[in-house]
Amino acid sequence: MKNHLVRTHRSAERFPREEHLAWRIAEVAADAVAVEPRTEQMIVNRIIDNAAVAVAALTRRPVANARAQALAHPYRPGATVFGAPGRFSPEWAAWANGVAVRELDFHDTFLAAEYSHPGDNIPPILAVAQHAGRGGRDLIRGLATGYEIQVDLVRGICLHEHKIDHVAHLGPSAAAGIGALLGLDTETIYQAIGQALHTTTATRQSRKGEISSWKAYAPAFAGKMAVEAVDRALRGEGAPAPIWEGEDGVIARLLGGPDAEYVVPLPSPGEPKRAILDTYTKEHSAEYQSQAPIDLARRMRERIGDLDQIASIVLHTSHHTHHVIGTGSGDPQKFDPHASRETLDHSVMYIFAVALQDGGWHHERSYAPERARRPDTVALWRKISTAEDPEWTRRYHSTDPAEKAFGARAEITLRSGEVIVDELAVADAHPLGARPFTREHYLAKFRTLAEGVVAPAEQDRFLEVAQRTGELSADELSELSVTVAPDVLDRAPRSPQGLFR
């Protein structure tokens, strides 16, 4: 890996295009280095993981509405949409599938200087692969690139410090991945990256206060914009440049300002793209920084006994966890029994309370309105607070995988005055956790989430095809989707009439 210093340059300053971060990323995308077997196998795992969480969300309102929009755009050759037969315009297929994948907050994650869900790259890159008639080998190369670029940007550039949403790293990574998939030249990919970043930079209000369904729509929008950016770049249309480093560029006006400097690591020429191996998926349908606290809660509940004896709970954790999903956010909505699912998903206080009471977590039952409004849950929930601990913050930012942590130390004080303390650094499903996810866990997750939604024979067909993704022909790539019976989709709320018919 080579580190690249990224800073603002005045318009009058000599700054060759070959030194622009967008150009360097485009060079990485255009470098058709072979994908290593370990990387390919993990890509297959994440294709299965994405499909699992997508089918579990098929009947939810935001997903049904996004699907209705996509189904209004049939197209040939086109791309597939989860749950539905037929082919659709690739940018709209990317949109619908992106919402389905993101709705339950249940797929993979990478946390460093910034947050990310790198699996959000899969819907747009797969949609373009299906539409453009590419085979499994091209898809694998494109996905390895998408993951690599998003992870590298997340390592080097913090967005949330400046209240910019993390999908600002997704637009460029998806554009780069599509460029790699199609074997485009550096110039075309460079222009697509610039356009994708320019159109997908937004504030973090989508994840603050009263969190709405846009939390799931935001990454899908970034993927859709990446598809459209590549289309325009292929037609010869350019992008604002230098997009990151310009005098009025992203760094100067939206991030650290004209004097800020960032260091972004990128693979050297000929170096394989391995970043997906540093990412991790979720066992529980909740924000990643609550994964370890869920496992910690189910471990501690036996030591507590009668939960009514709890006087207070303090979760000592990192700056990120405290300020994003903890009491450091200052969001009263995080204690509101009538809050949206999206808001509850970003309340570690609610999540820890339910996990303590239930001994686990369920992607539907744990968020049900009647569950959130249970008097005993509300009472326990409001006894919980978070506190930033410098050591947990340091470990959160550590570059040593053996030391990096996303967990917490729980101090539970009982009415008797007894204090019960335990801590967990990483979730059980993390590569360094108690039960690291392997292929069998991904398959089991798919089977569990597809139960009652996808017919067993269709489950078997999809899993067989997915596990040989790299060998698929262009004709077979359309099989990397899942269809369901019409009565399953009928369970979803009926989408009101919009602009598209």
TrEMBL record:
Some GO term, biological process aspect, for this entry: which one? tricarboxylic acid cycle
UniProt-listed Enzyme Commission number(s): 4.2.1.3, 4.2.1.79
Primary enzyme class: lyase
**SUPFAM superfamilies, per the entry:** 2-methylcitrate dehydratase PrpD (SSF103378)
Key word Lyase present in the record?
A: yes
Say which domain of life the source belongs to: Bacteria
Q: Where is the MmgE/PrpD N-terminal domain?
A: 20-261
Per UniProt, which keywords does this protein have?
Lyase, Tricarboxylic acid cycle
Q: Which residues form the MmgE/PrpD C-terminal domain?
A: 284-467
List the catalytic activities from the record. Answer: citrate = D-threo-isocitrate; (2S,3S)-2-methylcitrate = 2-methyl-cis-aconitate + H2O
Which Gene Ontology molecular-function terms are recorded?
Answer: 2-methylcitrate dehydratase activity; aconitate hydratase activity
Entry's family note: Belongs to the PrpD family.
PANTHER family noted in UniProt: 2-METHYLCITRATE DEHYDRATASE, 2-METHYLCITRATE DEHYDRATASE-RELATED
Query: What is this protein called in UniProt?
Result: Aconitate hydratase
Recorded source organism is: Nocardia yunnanensis
